[in-house]
Design brief:
By secondary structure, this protein is α/β, with parallel strands linked by helices. The protein has two domains: 115 residues, Quinolinate phosphoribosyl transferase, N-terminal domain (Aldehyde Oxidoreductase, domain 3); 149 residues, Aldolase class I (TIM Barrel, Alpha-Beta Barrel). It has ten helices and twelve strands. A six-stranded parallel beta sheet has the order 6-11-10-9-8-7. It has a four-stranded antiparallel beta sheet with strand order 3-5-1-12, covered by helices on one side. The chain has a two-stranded antiparallel ribbon with strand order 2-4. Strand 10, helix 9 and strand 11 form a beta-alpha-beta unit. Helix 1 packs across helix 3. The chain is elongated and about 70 Å long.
Length: 273
């Protein structure tokens, strides 16, 4: 975390009041406990927040650890005012990031039961201002973060195609961006996927297509001998109920907005002992 990020998060929660004049400066010890099973994420950020506030801590856990209900993941000691100042912020980091990591882990396990080569990736459907932490949580959960922003790769989506036309959009992307960036095109039909495959792009995203349509598309790409030179990504409408079905279609990547926008927070509490 950057210093300015820690300070901005604390300012958002504590405000401009001198919180340390309200809460006693008495030395104390506090434990952070998890309330349910899951995958731990956000611990490194918690350490950095405590370091900033000069709070001592000890832990036997690391990000990525599998948690069971009742685990004490960290013990802190220091001024009570400092520890309580950090309480909600550190619990928010742990709850949100561990929730994303846990849901990602579940999706990855479902996919690996069918095909170990298929990647589970996130999307840009993230909380404003918290994207890098949610993307990190995806990686901790065993997933691929996908692009962090528009600057990392070119994805030509439906609205781009409506504005520019498919071939024109791909041509302009190749003219304007560095060779180091991949070009991906989003399509919503088998016919469009086959057309895009002839345009020498890096990735074809099959968006909001059924698993049967995705499987047909992969089969036809194989028959046309273009499958080996393009990655195929399935996205849209994928959840825990159908992820195995999509994993069996032959795609390379399954991207799921659900692992960020619908992840349930993992429960944590801080208790002064």
């Amino acid at each position: 975390m950057l210093l300015k990020e820690i300070e901005a998060f604390l300012e958002e929660d504590v405000g401009h009041e001198d919180y340390e004049e309200i809460v006693p400066y008495t030395s104390c010890k506090a434990e952070i406990q998890v309330k349910e099973e899951g995958v731990l994420a956000g611990l490194e950020e918690v350490k950095q927040i405590f370091d900033y506030l000069s709070v001592q801590y000890s832990t036997e856990f690391e990000d990525g650890a599998r948690l069971k209900s009742g685990d004490i993941i960290l013990t802190s000691s220091g001024a009570g005012a400092k520890i309580l100042k950090a309480e909600r912020l550190v619990l928010n980091f742990l709850g949100r990031m561990s929730g994303v990591a846990t849901l990602t882990d579940r999706c990855v396990n479902e996919v690996r039961a069918v095909n170990e080569r298929v990647l589970v990736a996130g999307t840009r459907k993230t909380t404003p201002g918290f994207r890098k932490y949610e993307k990190k949580a995806i990686a901790i959960g065993g997933g691929d973060p996908h692009r962090f922003g528009l600057y990392e790769a070119v994805i030509i989506k439906d609205n781009y195609i409506k504005l520019m036309g498919l071939e024109s959009a791909v041509k302009r992307a190749k003219e304007k961006v560095s060779f180091t960036k991949k070009i991906e095109v989003e399509v919503e039909s088998v016919e469009d996927a086959l057309s895009v495959a002839e345009l020498d792009v890096d990735i074809i995203m099959l968006d909001n297509m059924s698993a049967a349509e995705v499987q047909t598309c992969v089969k036809l790409l194989n028959e046309r001998a273009v499958r080996d030179r393009v990655l195929v990504e399935a996205s849209g409408g994928i959840d825990m109920a159908n992820i195995k079905e999509f994993a069996s279609t032959g795609v390379d990547v399954i991207s799921i907005g659900m692992i960020t926008h619908s992840a349930k927070w993992l429960g944590f509490s801080m208790n002064v002992v």
